[in-house]
Amino acid sequence: MDGVLIPPLNFSMAAPGIYRSGYPNSMNHAFMKKLQLKTILYLCPEDYSEANTAWCRAHNVQIVQCGILPNKEPFQFIPEDVVADALRVLLDCRNHPILMHCNSGKHRSGVVIGTLRKMQGWSLTSIFDEYRRFAGSKVRILDQQFIELFRIESVTYDKEYAPRWLR
Amino acid sequence: MDGVLIPPLNFSMAAPGIYRSGYPNSMNHAFMKKLQLKTILYLCPEDYSEANTAWCRAHNVQIVQCGILPNKEPFQFIPEDVVADALRVLLDCRNHPILMHCNSGKHRSGVVIGTLRKMQGWSLTSIFDEYRRFAGSKVRILDQQFIELFRIESVTYDKEYAPRWLR
């Protein structure tokens, strides 16, 4: 179908200026162009795909990488400081509109959005409900535990450039 | 917990200026205040709750009602013209920010957002994926069929006030 738009897997708008999704591929580029992105925040430690790197260069989109290894029992835990880094990038309006993504758009993205909701003052019930909406049957208790225990005081960000909805 | 914010069930941002959710109650009012809403679009035919009506009056939020009876086999079908009315309200920036809601935030809201995605040019696969994210185990085939067969040409709206992301 000519001209049909295909958002990346698990695409959604999280807040004004902030989008989340799974890993985009070239089939998603026409859709992404509509978002008029300024920034892509990439949450995996692996090198970014050549197709996306080239697309970003051609469309003047900066790529910021905060490489997070996902929670995996029993010994691999998401590092709190890298999540705080990711939040600092998300909460800077100069980077908006921004698309944050990991691989599936479920776990790492879900954790970062969960901690963002905590900073917004959402109840844990609401945060977990949103997390589950994207994780579906792949919910990870360790992710939810991370969100619950995350200390929002550890996030330093520039208040001057913070989105109005956070203030 | 004092000051904790509780979004309505199935709350989400659908696009710049447009929010969707289940039926808000008074526990959600503090959260809703943060959205600085101009309009609530209520998708059920029943009278609106007194608590929400009073809250809207106090916060200068206009209430628009497009009463839709949900799809129910074998003989009750969502009317195409009322969905077109709802889209006309959603696609008028003068009503933004707008919160659209039904009862559970699954079916009627899912159908209206699905038809909105069709107007945006999304693939049906992506539209149904989003529909399912909110409907969970309560997916209705008739809703998906409605979205597939919906004629976007039947929607008339004022181009001058349409959101930029639709143009």
TrEMBL record, chains A, B:
Cellular location(s): Cytoplasm
Domain of life: Eukaryota
UniProt-recorded name of the protein: diphosphoinositol-polyphosphate diphosphatase
Record PROSITE patterns: TYR_PHOSPHATASE_1, TYR_PHOSPHATASE_2, TYR_PHOSPHATASE_DUAL
Protein family per UniProt: Belongs to the protein-tyrosine phosphatase family. Atypical dual-specificity phosphatase Siw14-like subfamily.
Keyword check for Cytoplasm: yes
GO molecular function, one term: diphosphoinositol-polyphosphate diphosphatase activity
EC number: 3.6.1.52
Residues in Tyrosine-protein phosphatase domain copies: 10-162
Signal peptide limits: none
